[in-house]
Amino acid sequence: MGRPNYDVKDLALAGEGRSRIAWAEQEMPVLRQIRARFAAEKPLAGIRVAACLHVTTETANLMRTLKDGGADPVLCASNPLSTQDDVAAALVAEYGIPTFAIKGEDKDTYYAHISAALDHRPNITMDDGADLVSTLHSSRSDLLAGIIGGTEETTTGVIRLRAMAADGALRFPIIAVNDALTKHLFDNRYGTGQSTIDGVIRATNILLAGKNVVVSGYGWCSRGIAMRAKGMGANVIVTEVDPLRALEAVMDGYRVMPIAQAAPLGDLFITSTGDIHAIDAAHFALMKDGAIVANSGHFNVEINIPALEALATEVREPRPFVKQYILPDGRKLAILADGRLINLSAAEGHPASVMDMSFANQALSAEHMAAQGKSLEPKVYSVPEAIDKEIARLKLAAMGVAIDQLTAEQQAYLHSWQAGT
Length: 421
Ligand SMILES: NC(=O)c1ccc[n+]([C@@H]2O[C@H](COP(=O)([O-])OP(=O)(O)OC[C@H]3O[C@@H](n4cnc5c(N)ncnc54)[C@H](O)[C@@H]3O)[C@@H](O)[C@H]2O)c1
Description:
By secondary structure, this protein is an alpha/beta fold.
């Protein structure tokens, strides 16, 4: 007997996973419509897809869409802490989709699961953070010949892939799903905004009203986090390195200052910069007793946790996802979810309604790649504008929102240069 084509925590959780997947599906009308079309047209017939994504209810609905489109998909986790074990069980037992993901898996298991997904010999890769693609290029290059192309979900992954393309290292074309307007304007901002606050509250049960919340970065994710924290009554301080974004934060009504100045003020710190050590050893030295630090950026490098570990005399775990570091001067600083994406570790990630658009982009980009990939060069491509607009149109229609159309007079006016005052 060969190895089982899955590795999940407990198949007995499948029933629970199935009902939660169905609940999420109700909030994913765009993906539902794509799935119905895929089931009829089978645009992915015969295509093996290896996906490395957060194993959530929304991802399960994407995997079902790919399978109904004729693909042969396999799934592994894109983060050791973000897996929903009941969903992983349901994918295997209820939907027959090989899945390799266990919440809390160690680093070796995480990479063993990526390797198991690659054993599927994919034609299309679907990544969230580019770990699948970088493993493929570094240790499984024998598989490159069978690849048509791939898609990438998040900012950090797109940055890594662009760096690979610039070095001439990228060997197949990738569509940057993150860069679609119907992705980052909504998922990164409204999805990360709400679910990050949700993760912090579930992990700590703190009241945000009246607290000083320091948000590192003012990109798409951090704008959402700042907006929602402000809405709950927090005094938000933003730190940035980009003058334009810092200026925007000022104009949006936030206090903006260097992290070293914000460090002694913050009750809660949330990073989402995509950068390393946005909060570093020197900043822990300045923080007040009881400060809480969380990250919502892709990798667990934004907070220098090894430096805090080196400073601490004792580490306690007062609640799940909370580690309290006791410092020699008696101060206690808490790190949430070991600095991994707090919204996916301590909460459930983005709500389905927003993932509906992100995963509609994934499904349509996979279809585009299956049809066109062989004629594309090994570069990072944008999602075709027609796909972006179509997703926005379908989402509005599903929400029952109608909009105006340009009249012939307006069309002519907007395309002319002669008309003035
Ligand atoms: N938690 C989630 O579910 C989720 C969802 C989408 C994206 N992400 C991840 O979140 C991160 C941010 O994504 P984004 O789309 O907001 O990116 P972005 O590029 O729009 O924003 C990042 C911002 O951080 C700023 N920055 C960089 N280094 C900094 C530093 N040391 N201090 C302060 N600011 C700094 C940059 O100037 C930029 O404005 C990425 O790692 C992305 O992959 C997470």
